[in-house]
Amino acid sequence: MLNRSTAGSRAAAAGSRQAPVDRTSATAGASRRSLLLLLGAALVLMLTGLDGTPLRGLYDDVNRALIARNLAQSGGWIAVDSTGEPVLTKPPLMYWTAASLYRLTGRADELPARLASVLGMLVLLLGTFHLGRRLQDTPTGLLAGLLLVTMPLFLAMARQPLIDTVMLAGFGLCLIAVAELMTAPATQRTRWWLLLAVGFAWTTMTKGPVLLPLLLLILVPQRFGPAPLRPSGRQWLAMLGAVLLLVVPWHVAMLIAAPQIKDIWLTELLGRFTGSSAYHDWTQKPWWFYGPDLANTAPWLFLWPAGVVWAWRRRRTDRLAPLLLWWSLGGLVFFTVASATKRSYYLLPLYPAFALLGAGFWRGYRDRELRPLFPAALGRLVWGLTGSVVAGLVLAAGMAVGLGRLAWPWGVAALTSLGSGRRGWNRLRRRPELPDAILAAAIVLVLYHAAVVPPWHAFLSGKPFLLAARSFIAAEESAMHPAAAAPRPRIFACDIELEIAAFYLGVRPFNIAGPDKLPDLVARGGGGWLITRVEHAAAVEGLTPALARALHSPLREESRAYGLYRLPQADAR
């Protein structure tokens, strides 16, 4: 009996020792499943309709793509613009990343440049998920990631070639490092300090040290408290060495090749934090610009102020809460007051904080922690308003597009949006982690980027006509020079953005300042080709029509007619 009792106690003890292992394994499995769900949702949202969506010249997207393609085609490491001049205003990491994708895919269209932004924002999304998972729990990280990727501005910029989106990959690495530094033992932090240094070096090699103030807002408050983050002397040296190794070589090489670049760098860096009206006049905004601009976080705008209440209540007991307060509120004040130029996507480094605050609030509300402050009636009102806002956006878009070709997808989206409520996708487990409103927002965004954005950008850019003109010119030039390689054609452009024309024509056209200059161009002779609006060419004698195409807006009753014309030779005048 004694032996059986002893054996039983040992078995019980063994079982008790095994239980934490099982729980850890289950937690790791749930984390992997959540990560796969987040990545799957993000890839669907970011890649739907991406291939073939034209560049439209918004936020320098075509300029970035053109520089990266030129870099890939030249095989060099110094980025040059469409005129052959070196790009000295920004570090080259965005161009290197996009150029590598151009070389890997063998393509020459928009997709490789867009994929560079997709990859950058995916890393930021992973950093957001990891921070929420490590400092709260896996459902909080998953919910924050889903809120982030369904914010319209975040998703739109993730699909567009931008320096800032590639820069945010480095910021995502910094978030992963911060999450580990705040939870790992002091003896295991060196690797994470090094990852933080690598992330900062990445951001610096993409856009300069513009994110240093935001990193300080996140890290400096962590030096105080019961478990302060204070790197040792050896860790400081390791971080400094990593940053110098990754940042200095290119800067030194550029200073040797172009000594005047130091003045350009000073103007670029200091101009962003001064009130100089000579710097980027077109982006000067009033100090309150970023207040209304927060509407770009819709339909989750209401969540992050409520999340501030949640974080304030937990600021003394939760390490994530004060970090989010400094990050979101301090970062908003910094970008509002310190930046002389203001663009909507400059706030993208704050969007993960908004998403984490919203996820924290929702989790706190669901777990009854915040019910006294936010009663159930308010919760129902919040999600009802969310469904109404999304449905209203769908209705507005449907009215703008018309009730024809997009009637059924917009109808499905509207019905899904109206049905959004507080119940989650995990109803069978009775654990409503994810509100249905996220699914509704995702459906609307997928339909928008798949069905509306491509034809709208095609209309704005003139891509269909430019590609047809390129094929026509190539065929004509080959017919004129059958025995030898055709020389580069002389192409002139009027009433169309030169960077867009250069990207889709494969050669940069000469600029004609306005329709009133067209008679002088014809009078000079010399041959070549002219691209302009049909109505402008009709008023000029001497042009020979070669190709014409009318483009129609998918959103309103508007059309543009472009034409390709032969210019007269000198002896034909």
Topology:
Layout: H1 2-47, H2 61-74, H3 93-105, H4 111-135, H5 138-149, H6 152-158, H7 163-181, H8 190-207, H9 212-219, H10 233-257, H11 261-271, H12 290-293, H13 303-313, H14 320-337, H15 351-366, H16 376-401, H17 407-418, H18 436-461, H19 463-480, E1 491-493, H20 498-505, E2 510-511, H21 518-524, E3 529-533, H22 534-537, E4 544-552, E5 559-566
Parallel strand pairs: 1-2, 1-3
Antiparallel strand pairs: 3-5, 4-5
Describe the overall structure.
By secondary structure, the protein is mainly alpha-helical. 61% of the residues lie in helices and 5% in strands. It has helices at 2-47, 61-74, 93-105, 111-135, 138-149, 152-158, 163-181, 190-207, 212-219, 233-257, 261-271, 290-293, 303-313, 320-337, 351-366, 376-401, 407-418, 436-461, 463-480, 498-505, 518-524, 534-537, and strands at 491-493, 510-511, 529-533, 544-552, 559-566. β4 (544-552) and β5 form a beta hairpin. It is elongated.
Spatial order of the strands forming the largest sheet: 2-1-3-5-4
Strand content range: under 5%
Main sheet characteristics: 5 strands, mixed
The residue ranges in which pLDDT falls below 50 over 5 or more consecutive positions are 1-23, 276-280, 401-410, 417-433
Taking the alpha carbons of the first and last residues, their distance comes to 118 Å
Mean pLDDT: 81
List keywords for this structure.
5% strand; 61% helix; mainly alpha; 5 strands; 573 residues
Summarize the structure.
The chain is mostly helical. It has helices at 2-47, 61-74, 93-105, 111-135, 138-149, 152-158, 163-181, 190-207, 212-219, 233-257, 261-271, 290-293, 303-313, 320-337, 351-366, 376-401, 407-418, 436-461, 463-480, 498-505, 518-524, 534-537; strands spanning 491-493, 510-511, 529-533, 544-552, 559-566.
